[in-house]
Every structure is written in C-alpha cells, then in structure tokens.
C-alpha cells in the first residue's frame, strides 16, 4: 500500500526515478536506478541523489545521440511524478539530481511512529528456517559457535520483526562415530550407569579420556566401533548411554543460551536417522551415487567440478554430508520452507556449496522457489592477532568468557562511581546489559565475513561504535523526559497538545536519520548483514548528541528550577529512544533506563 511505500524512502525514490526515466527516455526505461543517500554535512546537496544522468549520456553517445548529462538530469527532474516525501528536486554539478526530503512528511512519519509504535516495512512473507549455533555434543562449544549463536539469534529477530515465519533450529552434532568411544568409555568407567546417573559433568575431560584410549588401545577401538553399530541399531542400553551424554552437554548449552537470551529449538543430526536412509535410497534411485574406493559418492553437478559428497562410507555408515542432504530435503519437502539460512563459519563454505548444488541437482531445491544462504563469518582472534585461546593455549570456555565479561563490566561501572548512584538492582541490570551487550555487539558491528579481534578493553570503550556508547546514549535520552517533571510515557497524549517541530538544523538532521531506519532494515535483511544496523545505531546516537548539544530540551534558571519544557524536542528524544529500542531488540541488547 501507499503508506508502506513511504516508509521505505529508497524504494519510493527508486520508483519515482524509474518512472521519470521511463517517461523522459522510453528507450532506456530498463536502466537500473541509482540512488544514494547523501551523508554530506553540507545541506546543499540534498538528502538523496539520483546518479543516472551520466550513465545515460554515455549510452546515448554510443548510440550516436549527443546530449549532456546535465540536460538529461534536467529532463529526469521534469518528469518526476509529485511525491509527498519530496520537498524539492534540484539539478547540480555535472548532472546530479538532488532530492530534498519534505519536513512535513517527516513530521507526520515521526508522529505516527510515536502514536502507533514502530511498524515493520511491508515485505512478502516467507517461511524461513535458520540453522544456527549447532555445537557438537561432548565437544567444546567454542567461540565459533558463539559467533553463530549471536549472529543467528539476531538474524531471527530481524526476520521476525519483518513478520516472517521463522523456525530457529539447533542442528546439534549429536550423532556419529564419536559416540562409539564415548559409550564404550562410559560402560567401563560407570558400569552401573543405567541405574545411577554418572558424574560426567566435565564432559570435555571425559571426551579427552575416551579419545586417548581410542587412539592408544586397539581393543578399545574395536569396542568403540561395535558401539557405533549397537547405537545405530537402537540397542536400548546404548541409546540410554547416548541420552545421558547428550543431556550433560544439552544442560551446558542451555545455560549459555539463557545467559545470552537465545531461543532455539533442538533438532540435531540424530533427528534425521531414518531420513538419511531414505535420502540415500532417493539418490540411488536417481542414479546419482557412484562407487569410489568402497564409498558411495555424489558429485554436486554434472560437470563433476568441486568436491564430491561422501554419502555412504565404506563401512556402510553415513557422514556429515549425508545428514545435511537429509536435513535439506526434510526442510524443503516436509517443513515446506522457502528460505533456509545456515549460520556457520566460512571454513565450511565448500561443504555448503556442495550441499546446495547437490540439492539442486537431485531436484530437492529449486532456485526459483527456494532461497538458500550460507551466512558465513570469520574467526575470532585474540589481541595478539592469533586464533583466540586462553593464556595456557587452551580453547576458551564460553561460560568463563561470559563470566569475565560480567567482571569487566562491573569494574567499569564502579570506576564511574555508578555503584554509588544506582540501586543494587539497577547496578546488576546495568552490569548484565553492558557485559552481554558488548560481547554481542562486538561480534555484530563488523562485517561478519571478516575475522575480528576479541578485546574487552575495546568493547567497553565508551567512545566510538560500541554497545557501551549506545547504551549510555540511550539512558541519557531516557533521562531527559524523566527530568522534565512531566509524564511522557504516553507520547500520544503529548501529541494531542504539541507537534513535532523540525526547524533547527540539528533537529532536522536527527529526524532524517531516524527515518532511514526502515531502509536499513531492508538492507540488512536482503544480504543478512547486521553491521549496517549497528552503523545506523551509531549514526542515530551521534546525530542525537549533536542535537542535544545545540538544542535545549529543558531550560532551567540559576536555582535549577525548570522554567521551560520544550515538548516538541522531548518528543523527538522519545522517537529517538523508540527507534533505538527497536534496533537494540534486534541486536539482542537490553537497554536500561539508568546506567
Ligand atoms: N555441528 C557443526 C559444527 O560444529 C555445525 C553444524 C551446522 N549446520 C549444518 N546443517 N551443517 O561444525
């Protein structure tokens, strides 16, 4: 609908200019429209710019028509349909078409946001499965899984905000040959495990012990293999042992999810047992499996480029490839999703490319109906620029990392004397908000493709694009309405008596920044990049700080008595807070009013 379109400024301008180009130059009506948001301090360039005139002039010249870009720009301007969003359009320089947004439109958009809350832009709804976190039972949940957990959770929140139907799936590594040795070891160490819960809280150590025996002891190795067979055959004792081991890991994982406020449904590799059998049959029936050195493999494409998938091992067992083929088939054919998102480190990109290609080759996935993304991310580095490790060289335990975050954030709050000002409850809320917020934000604020350096010191810096800076700015905004002595909790009521006014240059700049929110959401969701949203938050906070530095919201006399409350400006503050809250929600930051 029309009102939806006006939320998406970029989209709206694209439509306007594409109509204008089609009218002015029908032969070139298919030209993709180029719109840029202008981030120039100088207002004379307008707020957005259409940059098509230069390219069109070049194309026409090639076709033997000589016309200057400036004349083309003028013609495009003349053909622009009227729009409530636009105050004026100007042609500048070599052939830029500058767009100036309408203040009146901005006022009404912000007013709606304050009255009705922030509604998401309207997009076609999809059923989406997000495969994220996905650690392995009995193995360390490491920082790579932490990245997947944080990025995956935010992607779910973003897509849920857009009102998609989102399935959050934990593709736990809970099946496979490693269970043979774990079960054999469990039998030896705790023969009575059926009746008495074994104390294997430290599964890491348990895993290491059994791995050592597996590597050193031929006899044990044989028994381990036998247990893979008994487990897969559904032998009750083996199943019981497997469940016990899974439960221990599961509880550890859940603690991390609770702390990070992550919601995810467990559907591990074991879920696909029967479906692995049937996907193998399916592939065989299509003649897609080839024998290779005792294995059965499948080439992802007819040209046999890339790496073949191992579908059946020489001992008849299945692999990671088999389970992912079974999973993708289940997701598309049984869950009926039309978008699958795998949030897994870049190291697995070859694997996923093969799976996606193979799924197409055998007819499970159809590129016209199913969007499939491998949302990859780089590794976490320590401050020394090497792979993130503890001082002793071990992998970092996630719970230790979160504990350390809690300590650092408390120390920072104490250093600022906040423990003197805040109540114990407020202090502990602030501590959690900063600790988990900064860990999440440090991960999300960079382009996920690149590696990033984990440093509490940098994360907790209160200047620059950090969670701390955003959280402090947010609480500062909240304190303004609070100190006005009036009740702004229901902005609709204030709006009955006062309007938003955008006369001051900094008010206008802040308002225009806020209205970019909807475009940013679309930009983030199309490529599944959250750093754009982080950059936006930072831009909002800087625009707010500039506004607050030059615009009084509350005027006081020498005695500190309030002499004037500028309702319009406080409404603008409240709109800023509302936009930030929505962004924080997606990024998993918990805003606190006092910090
Ligand atoms: N468990 C795997 C790992 O830790 C990640 C699983 C990702 N999801 C998938 N469908 N393969 O490396």
Automatic annotation (TrEMBL):
Q: What class of enzyme is it?
A: ligase
Q: Where is the DALR anticodon binding domain?
A: 470-595
Which keywords appear in this protein's UniProt record, sorted alphabetically?
A: Aminoacyl-tRNA synthetase, ATP-binding, Coiled coil, Cytoplasm, Ligase, Nucleotide-binding, Protein biosynthesis
CC annotations in GO: aminoacyl-tRNA synthetase multienzyme complex; cytosol
Q: Give the top-rank taxon of the lineage listed in the UniProt record for this protein.
A: Eukaryota
**Molecular function per GO:** arginine-tRNA ligase activity; ATP binding
Query: EC annotation?
Result: 6.1.1.19
Q: Where is the Arginyl tRNA synthetase N-terminal domain?
A: 11-101
Q: Which GO terms describe its biological process?
A: arginyl-tRNA aminoacylation
Among SUPFAM superfamilies, the record links this protein to: Anticodon-binding domain of a subclass of class I aminoacyl-tRNA synthetases, Arginyl-tRNA synthetase (ArgRS), N-terminal 'additional' domain, Nucleotidylyl transferase
> Which Pfam families does UniProt cross-reference here?
Arg_tRNA_synt_N, DALR_1, tRNA-synt_1d
| Reaction(s) catalysed by this chain's protein | tRNA(Arg) + L-arginine + ATP = L-arginyl-tRNA(Arg) + AMP + diphosphate
Cellular compartments annotated: Cytoplasm, Cytosol
Q: Which SMART domains match?
A: Arg_tRNA_synt_N, DALR_1
Give the family this protein belongs to, as stated in its UniProt record: Belongs to the class-I aminoacyl-tRNA synthetase family.
Spell out the protein name for this chain.
Answer: Probable arginine--tRNA ligase, cytoplasmic
């Amino acid at each position: 609908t029309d009102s939806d379109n006006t939320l998406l400024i970029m989209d709206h301008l694209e439509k306007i200019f594409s109509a204008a180009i089609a009218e002015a130059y029908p032969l070139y009506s298919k030209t993709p429209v180029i719109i840029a948001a202008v981030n120039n301090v100088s207002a004379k360039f307008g707020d957005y710019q259409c940059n098509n005139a230069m390219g069109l002039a070049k194309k026409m010249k090639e076709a033997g028509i000589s016309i200057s870009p400036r004349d083309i720009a003028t013609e495009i301007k003349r053909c622009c349909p009227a729009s409530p969003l636009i105050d004026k359009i100007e042609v500048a320089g070599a052939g830029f078409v500058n767009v100036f947004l309408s203040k009146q439109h901005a006022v009404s958009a912000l007013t709606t946001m304050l009255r009705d809350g922030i509604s998401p832009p309207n997009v076609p709804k999809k059923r989406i499965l997000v495969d994220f976190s996905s650690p392995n039972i009995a193995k360390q949940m490491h920082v790579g899984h932490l990245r997947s957990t944080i990025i995956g959770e935010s992607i779910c929140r973003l897509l849920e905000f857009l009102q998609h139907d989102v399935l959050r799936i934990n593709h736990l590594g809970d099946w496979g040959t490693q269970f043979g040795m774990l079960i054999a070891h469990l039998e030896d160490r705790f023969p009575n495990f059926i009746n008495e819960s074994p104390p294997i809280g430290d599964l890491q150590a348990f895993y290491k012990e059994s791995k050592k025996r597996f590597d050193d002891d031929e006899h044990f190795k044989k028994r381990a293999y036998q247990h893979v067979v008994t487990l897969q055959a559904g032998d009750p004792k083996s199943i019981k042992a497997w469940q016990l081991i899974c439960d221990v890991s599961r509880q550890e994982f859940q603690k991390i999810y609770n702390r990070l406020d992550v919601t995810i449904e467990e559907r591990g590799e074991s879920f696909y047992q029967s479906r692995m059998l049937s996907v193998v049959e399916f592939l065989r029936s299509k003649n897609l499996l080839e024998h290779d050195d005792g294995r059965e493999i499948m080439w992802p494409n007819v040209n046999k480029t890339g790496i073949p998938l191992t579908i059946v091992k020489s001992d008849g067992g299945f692999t990671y490839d088999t389970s992912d083929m079974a999973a993708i088939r289940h997701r598309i054919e049984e869950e009926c999703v039309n978008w699958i998102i795998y949030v897994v480190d870049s190291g697995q990109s070859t694997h996923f490319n093969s799976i996606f290609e193979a799924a197409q080759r055998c007819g499970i996935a159809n590129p016209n109906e199913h969007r499939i993304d491998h949302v990859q991310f780089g590794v976490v580095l320590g401050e020394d620029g090497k792979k993130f490790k503890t001082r002793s060289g071990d992998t970092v335990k996630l719970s230790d990392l979160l504990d350390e975050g809690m300590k650092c954030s408390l120390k920072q709050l104490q250093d600022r004397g906040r423990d003197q000002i805040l109540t114990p409850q407020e202090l502990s809320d602030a501590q959690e908000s900063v600790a988990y917020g900064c860990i999440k934000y440090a991960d999300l604020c960079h382009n996920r493709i690149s590696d990033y350096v984990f440093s509490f010191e940098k994360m907790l810096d209160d200047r620059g694009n950090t969670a701390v800076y955003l959280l402090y700015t947010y609480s500062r905004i909240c304190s303004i309405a609070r100190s006005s002595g009036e009740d702004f909790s229901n902005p609709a009521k204030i709006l009955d008596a006062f309007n938003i006014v955008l006369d001051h240059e900094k008010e206008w700049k802040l308002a225009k920044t806020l209205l970019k929110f909807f475009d940013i959401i679309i930009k983030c969701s199309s490529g599944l990049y959250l750093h754009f949203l982080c950059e936006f938050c930072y831009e909002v906070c800087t625009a707010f700080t500039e506004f607050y530095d030059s615009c009084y919201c509350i005027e006081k006399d020498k005695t500190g008595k309030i002499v004037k409350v500028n309702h319009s400006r406080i409404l603008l503050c409240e709109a800023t807070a509302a936009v930030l809250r929505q962004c924080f929600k997606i990024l998993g930051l918990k805003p606190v009013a006092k910090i």
